[in-house]
Amino acid sequence: xxxxxxxxxxxxxxxxxxxxxxxxxxxxxxxxxxxxxxxxxxxxxxxxxxxxxxxxxxxxxxxxxxxxxxxxxxxxxxxxxxxxxxxxxxxxxxxxxxxxxxxxxxxxxxxxxxx
Length: 115
Known about the structure:
- The chain is an alpha/beta fold.
- It has a single domain (8-106), classed as 3-Layer(aba) Sandwich (Oxidized Rhodanese, domain 1).
- It is built from four helices and five strands, in the order βαβαββαβα.
- The protein has helices at 14-20, 36-41, 78-88, 100-106, and strands at residues 8-11, 28-32, 48-49, 66-70, 93-97.
- Strands 1-5-4-2-3 form a five-stranded parallel β-sheet, covered by helices on one side.
- α2 links the parallel β2 (28-32) and β3 (48-49).
- The protein is globular.
- The termini are far apart.
- The relative contact order is 0.27.
- The mean pLDDT is 90.
């Protein structure tokens, strides 16, 4: 990690998240801020729901885990709220995907469903 940039909230595109998801190091987590019904209807493989962030970082994550925060689309204010919550819980690197699941699907990336 670049110590000059830690502690900043970044933004990226769905295509970059798809590229990043092919590599497990450094460790990362995808945090989906949508409600349960939307999450179950289709989410990025390995994503976790944002519920419970107020009590700490997600299970298995540390302050050096890179967090990608995904919402429904460009106007989803829950993305910034979750990023700020993660930062308040000690996360050093949060990356928002402003296009959210709308951009993910439009780019043709696969989704998992809770079946």
